[in-house]
Amino acid sequence: MLNKTISIFSLILTITFFTACGSDNEANDLLASKEFVLTTTDNKQLVVTKNETDGFMVNGADGKVILFDIFATWCPPCQASASHLTSLQEKYKDKIVVIGTTVERPEFTKEGKIINDKIEEFRLKYNAKYTIVNSDQNMRLNNSITSSLKMGERYPIPTIVLYKDGKYITHYVGSVQEEFIESDIKRALGI
Length: 191
Fold this sequence. Notes:
Strand order of the largest sheet: 8-5-4-9-10
Mean pLDDT: 85
Largest sheet: 5 strands, mixed
Number of helices: 5
Helix content: 40-55%
Distance between the termini: 79 Å
Strand content: 25-35%
Oligomer: single chain
């Protein structure tokens, strides 16, 4: 009888232990699904966090307008947008952060390092003087942003989305004039 009681107690203890571990894993998975660690083309890391209201924040960019440009290097409207985004980044340098996040899968060297040749060629050819990330996390972030906007799995590019302090401001699909984006940046900044 004592052995049976000990066996039942051990079984309950084991089930409790594994159930608790499962909850921790679920909590960790939830946290991980809301955080994106992106690598810039100059090998710096940006941490983007999704909040409860489907807004996105970049660590260290409090009070700034965050502009995500979801693009591809081969896309003509994306190419045309690059110089406009550079102009806005330069004009509002301390007030906005422009982050280009490509939909293209990164290429790797045999050693596992990301190859940025296509991105650098894009940057030079189209005057893209803002932060561009080329990371295996890009698609996760792009899909999370477009999903929060209810754009579906096959969203158009470029898609430009503005946030401030984790709050959604507006978004644009396709080619858009710089003046429209600037107007929304000014409105978000209160100027």
